[in-house]
Amino acid sequence: MQKEYTDHFFNISPKHGFLPIREPLANLPTQYSAIQLIIDKLPDLIADIPCFDEKIANLPKLNVDEETDPFVIQALFRAYCFVSSAYLLAPAQRDKKDGIYGKARNELPAQLAVPLDCVANKLGVSPWLEYHYAYSLGNYIRKDPQGDLHWQNLDMACSFTRTKDEIGFIMNHVYINEVTPDLVQAIYLYFTNQEQDGIKLMYETLLEINKRRQSMWRASDHRHYNDFRAFIMGIKGNEQVFGLGVKYLGTKNPEEYRQYRGQTGAQDDIIPTCDIFTGITKFYPHNDLTDYLHDLRTYRPQCVQAYFKDLQEEVAVKPVLEFFKSRDDHNGLVYLLACIDQVYLFRNGHWQFVQQYIMANTKYPVATGGTPIISWLPNQIQACLSAIGEVLNIIKVDLLNEIHKQMYEDIKHRHQQGQKLINEQLKELQKIDYSSEKVYKLNDQHNLQDDK
Which of 6, 63, 91, 299 has its Cβ near the most Cβ atoms within 10 Å? Predict the structure, then answer.
């Protein structure tokens, strides 16, 4: 694999991981002040739709065609994504009842649509709010410039509500990604004939990633997620809110209804990278849910997509499981097993976020990315459990040292509990009047509660 994959904003490498090569711009340059003024007032404008409409009607169609600075292009994309999502979805949030959203608008005015289309084309992404350039990884500001990327030291350059719960929710993702240079380094080590060092570093990095992910329970109160969730919804898979789609007025095909998937943590790069590297992808079920998973990968930056493609090709030549198995290296296999187990714990923890942040607050069945709420993550969880089961059966326990033998036994027990847990949860979710509270409490019964 190459040492780096870059678009000059991101650089997927052991130095930068999945974060930008330097801090994103906090504000747009002065020549774009008209859109920056709306960003600065966005939470207030969302609450006053007539005033919002007036601001948009008076917004000039800024010329962004000649912009070449990748950090300015990214900040423009971020700004236009935020304003466009807020404009289209403010009525859906206003008319929300019992957790069910109202109708969104179906036409994006030319003064938003044309520049958004332009900067999206420059970045090679869809003209819609997404995870990398807009809502999360390209949207952080350090409160203390000398401090680290702990979520408590981060603010958002753009936000919909400017509440601590929105800020904590999305900035925790940046905090998790602070350690991704080690994740990329682990893979680099494996493919440069340092296999034991690589797989061990991946396991240690995933331990830290899961630790940071669990801080979400403290960073953002799950009871307030619905205060901003509407604004990160996508069009595709969300016809109840958007109907046929959205017309981008003033663009090449202004009468065409467009559909794009929404912003979602499922667009993050950590777990897809681990899935490819560890071989979990072989256990993906052949169904629509897996098709959605692959579709979401196309919403990532071009450099990330290139990284995934090369990683898949390299793993096909030197699969991790087969490498350690061929050398009868069962201690190496335990580290692979532990990596897959950490991916399982990440997904099962994410599934518990869904149970509390979403299912406890609304019966609306669609995730922000346009995927079905109650079956999306269980689909991937089952793939992880199947992968764990295969590796458990291959490892010869009597060849392990004492530390690795204990790791093996712990994972074996967790695997058994995980199988029981997901089966019981899916059985409950088959009911028309399922109880999200019961689904969540099952985690504790099987000793897999994430927020302990």
Answer: 299
